[in-house]
Amino acid sequence: MLHKRKMCGPVRLAAVVVCVGVLVPGVIPPGGARAQLSDEPVTGLPAPGPEAYASLQKLVAELDRSGGTVVAEVGPHTVTRADIADIIRAMPPIAGGVPFPLLYQRAATRALEQAALALRGETTGLDNDPVVRRRMRNAASDALATEVIRRSLAPNLTEQALHSTYDALVANKPAPEEVDIRLIMVDTEAEATALIGQLNGGANFAELAAKFSKDGTAGNGGDLGYARQDLLSSEIGAIAFAMAPGQMTAYPVRSGNAWFIIRVESRRQPATPSFDAARGALEQDIIHAGAPFLMQQALKSAPVKYHGVAGINAAKDPN
Fold this sequence. Notes:
single chain; alpha+beta; Chitinase A, domain 3; globular
């Protein structure tokens, strides 16, 4: 899923970056958490100013201000605003253009899904399985290591360093080209083929997307908006950027576990982002640049005993 390091970080989604659809899929049956959240307004949140919608960093900061506030309970598990913020924080920068209530509700749905699945695992005793326990320990170690990197390198995020990085990587350079696309996502190739037949017969793309697409853009007629190629999956990005405005894929496109029909509406060459707009990406770039040296330092100072491929008999897991 990683790709060549660019200004906005190494993010590539399994399918297409539909910030609140494919990225945070809501695959809950009717009557479940999705139904409960879909029409419920988001209330009680500190009202962010217009600038808060410019980046995910500012959006999550609004949630972090009252991160301990519980927004849902799933059995013994609680979901807080900080949990919602963590899910939104993991999204690519393009998600910042999604209306905040919709972004919040999709993230909350994802948090409820995770809690419900965890509860099911605990109920069946799966959390005591040795393999699962090992993976849980690894996940905890990964989260701790990530936080060590973030906090250790935070002093590097000076205004001078940020401006220097901006001047070197962004200023006076053309921004990546973007395409405005509509898409329809379905489960099978046969469904996609049938819909392409209807579109070739004169059916309206937006109407079919609203009726049949399982992507988060369905409510907007399949309109994803403008996106750069590095924020799309390799399959969809390659095809979308090879088409001219007004063209539609002649055959279904598979990406991840879904099938897509793609139509390119227009293309544009956006202006170079301002320093303020690029600030979040610049911070990530500086942290990514400093992480390898920090990891080498940690490894040298840790009491490591490497036993090679053959290894030794592992001690019994006390847990």
